[in-house]
Amino acid sequence: MPEQFRDLQLSDETSVRELCKDIWEGNDYVPDRFSNWIKEDNSNPIGLFADGKLVALGNLEAAPDSPFAWIKGLRVNTSRQHEGHGTKLVEHMIDLARKRGIKKLRYATSSRNEHSVHLAKKLGFAMANSIGYFRLSNPYPPHPAPSPITVPLMVNSERLHKVLFSTPELVESGTLPLLWGFEDKELEGLLRLENRTEFKLIVGDEGNAEGLFYGASVERNESKTATYSVFATDRGIFIDIMARILDELDNSDADRAVFFLGPHATEWAPSLLIVSDDYLNRRYLLLERGLEG
Predict the structure, then answer these.
(1) How far does CA 4 lie from the centroid of its chain?
(2) In CATH, which of 3.40.50, 3.40.630, 3.40.1350, 3.30.420 is domain 133-287?
(3) Neighbours of 64 (CB within 10 A)
(4) CATH assignment of 4-102, among 3.30.70.2860, 3.40.50.970, 3.10.310.40, 3.40.630.30
């Protein structure tokens, strides 16, 4: 039977769970997200079938009110890897996105997933951002108290856009992370981020922005993960931001937390003595491919 691409349906859920059962030691998020992908207007889960069986899947997710889309949840049956199924599926999704007028495709993955990075680069995706990240689990580690004289300011997207323009060293890249995705640093991207988070800015004694942090959370299988993105140009401000976040986590119902870090925060994070050695050289990557022309 020839290979076949087709849109996945809710009736494929059993096949999806079977494909993902050995991924991440059985803790893959894709089976739990699959039913949402089916319902969401901006999602298009696609499967590659060989010999009548699902061997690869992924979700082509259009970003609302923007010219780009994501390839998310790319998975290949562990018993059918190294047969080119992942490459064929991504090529199909690239063609489909181009036909739909998408101008840019994005793909995010961990630096530890060398096969995933190799696949993306082979198909024309280029590195667009690389950030440090690490995880913590409840109970959260002891930490110093936040400074009583440092008060974070809640700012909207327009104010943040002006700050980032005047203080480019605060966020040096062209994108900002939220959850496990990225958004453009331009005003349109910040407006989209503002619909999902609250920006908190810390201004130094001389009136310059020295810290930025924001967060969002997600629930899965009756557990909650809180995520935070942290940028700083001053080490003391970074330590204060982390103390504030850990205070918040102590008073939350989050079972775990993930931190995405700007370049300076990545450099300073080991000095907190709470980051596992396993994360010291790990990076979360954004790869992009333009589809115009």
Answers:
(1) 30
(2) 3.40.630
(3) 9
(4) 3.40.630.30
Distances (CA, A) of 1 to 51, 53, 79, 196: 5, 10, 18, 45
Indicate the angle between helix axes 114-122 and 85-99, nearest 10 degrees: 50
**pLDDT tens profile 54-100:** 999 999 999 887 889 999 999 999 888 888 999 999 999 999 999 99
The Cα angle at residue 192 between residues 121 and 132, in degrees rounded to 5: 45
**Joined tokens for residue 237:** 């401000």
Compute the distance between CA of residue 151 and CA of residue 255 in angstroms, rounded to an integer: 27
